[in-house]
Amino acid sequence: MQSIENSKILILASQSPRRKYLLSQAGIQFKVIPSQVDESTVPMTSPESYVKILAERKAQDVARQYPENYVIGADTIVLLDGTILGKPRSRNEARQMLTRLSGETHQVLTGFALCCTARSYRYSDAVKTDVRFKKLAPEEIEWYIHTPEPFDKAGAYAIQGLGTFLVKSINGSYTNVVGLPVCEVIELLLKEGIIGLNGPSRTFDETG
Amino acid sequence: MQSIENSKILILASQSPRRKYLLSQAGIQFKVIPSQVDESTVPMTSPESYVKILAERKAQDVARQYPENYVIGADTIVLLDGTILGKPRSRNEARQMLTRLSGETHQVLTGFALCCTARSYRYSDAVKTDVRFKKLAPEEIEWYIHTPEPFDKAGAYAIQGLGTFLVKSINGSYTNVVGLPVCEVIELLLKEGIIGLNGPSRTFDETG
Prior knowledge:
Two copies of one chain form a homodimer. With 208 residues, chain A is an alpha+beta fold. Chain A has seven helices and nine strands, in the order ββαβαββαββαβααβα. Chain A has helices spanning 17-25, 47-65, 91-101, 138-145, 174-178, 182-191, 204-207; strands spanning 2-3, 10-12, 30-32, 71-80, 83-85, 105-116, 121-133, 167-172, 195-196. The radius of gyration of chain A is 18 Å and the shape is elongated. Strand 8 of chain A pairs antiparallel with strand 8 (167-172) of chain B, so a sheet runs across the interface.
């Protein structure tokens, strides 16, 4: 898939290597320009509106600087029994989070937004996925928190990395758990005519 | 995670780059030695026993040549309404398969086996995942079958490639759909003491 016009070249307003990977592997062409949004200023009403507002703020922050371009913003949170699990600030916090997640089903919620300043275009939505962890032995938790992986991840794990062994099953969108619901995002980009299915070149040579 | 003894270095009896990627990203150390099993000679009783027998034959084919090593074999099939969808042999077959999968839920079944000749060890199991496709427009199918991706894949799609946009949601193990149920495989390797959670070095530096 490809951008129909150069002015429509997509921007991903996220420095997450996981989001970049997801869009790239799906054959989408885009540039990465991280947003500078202060997440602490977003009001917490419901989890759904929180991730949608934050995704929109991230997208708009970059969209203002690149008014002609369409910009994707996203935010992912982990919910256990209605409580948000953030990024662990210590090994101890990571241990506590993983102990709580062990053997349980939690939710991963990703808000995504698409904005274009010149066209006064704003769209946002949120997708939820259930994730069931295996019952973890204490040694498995200890092993995992002695890797660097849990410390920049909401809920103290990565489903696509070393943490693959933690996840027994999911119900919903997998890419949503990684950080961006690709099926929904591509559906939106096609609907808005931002990417197309025809054209002189395709990107599959790089990713197929 | 790492092999406890050198003699226990794992072998993956598959040339699938997807299975290699799944085990690598989970931090497992192994060698790849593809099997030479003729898949057409495996009897089709039930889908579960078919993938288990085929996974075992693949593992044993390599285990015989490396009697001291533990060998993993695997086979993945796609089932729609109880019928197996193989690898499409033409663009037309790929179009037909994707048209049938569009908007429906199908099953991906992966059999995996672990064998060690010197220890007379044999284990096999099968894991099933439900996969729900989005409703595909004819242009989306045309676009996809004009990429190389569908043609070496059971069911004519790859959940982790360009085909990410096809999949609305799954219920079960994601890695099972890619080609190997990593959570179950690692659980087995830990239980059998083939990999360990302690040791002088870890592999997370490469993959984290």
